Amino acid sequence: MAPDVLVQAGLLILTLVIFVAMYKLPKQALAKLRLKNRATVQANRHFIRPEASYFLTLAQGAVAEANKALNLDPKDAGAQILKALALDLQGHKSSALRSLDAALSPPAVKSLSDRERGDALFKRAELRVAINRRRRVDSAVADLVEAVRLSEDNCKAFCLLGECYEHKGMKDEARKAFLQALRIEPTSDAARQALERLASPS
Fold first, then answer.
1. Do 65 and 85 contact (CB within 8 A), yes or no?
2. Would you state the pLDDT for residue 40?
3. φ and ψ of 155, to 5 deg
């Protein structure tokens, strides 16, 4: 009987040791794993968080460089466009619009190719719509009509033109613009959704 009691006591102790090991060791291992992951997460956060400020710093640097170029040649449309894009990234849409107006006015506009002028007109229309959709839709439409004439493969310009036409209640013109956007880029979700929206009775 004594050996049976010793075997049972040994099994009980072994069971308790296994239970304690199962209870304590995973907690310690998880704590170590959490600490390892915490360092990784903090390191990644270190790289991810400044991303926005990094781009903001780049945009500020681009504005400074564009201003230097404009001091050397005030008629440089490329520098005005660079400045406008950088200002837009910083959220200064009105200032960006003024820079694009300067780039697209004579004599600066003469230095742009048709493609560049079309892209600049599209960006100006995009800014006009973003600043005040109601008051600036007509001027945005004029810019977009010229932009799609100059660069016929600009899907985004056709989509924005369609949105402006739709806003003005010109559904047929809007449909044509969205269809042209789909011809250029058959995978355009924006154009496809807009056509579905126009097709639905409202």
1. no
2. 52
3. -60, -40
53-96 pLDDT, tens digit each: 777 788 888 888 888 888 888 888 989 998 998 899 888 999 99
Residues whose CB falls within 8 Å of the CB of residue 64, separated by 6 or more in sequence, listed in order? none
Between helices 155-168 and 114-131, what is the axis angle to 10°? Answer: 40
**Cα→Cα distances 181→16, 135, 146, 161, 163, Å:** 71, 25, 15, 10, 12
- Structural contact between residues 190 and 200, judged by C-beta atoms closer than 8 angstroms: no
What residue has token string 């036409």?
Answer: 165
H or E stretch covering 77: helix 77-90
What is the pTM assigned to this prediction? 0.71
Token reading at 165: 């036409």
Nearest to 133 by CA among 101, 100, 168: 168
Cα 115 from chain centre: 23
Cα–Cα–Cα angle for 139, 145, 148, nearest 5°? 135
H helices of 91-154, where? Answer: 93-103, 114-131, 133-150
**Residue 133: pLDDT band with limits 50, 70, 90:** low
Burial classification of residue 83, based on how many CB atoms lie within 10 Å of its CB (0-12 exposed, 13-18 middle, 19 or more buried) = buried
Percentage with pLDDT > 70 across the chain: 79
DSSP string, 145-175: HHHHHH-TT-HHHHHHHHHHHHHHT-HHHHH
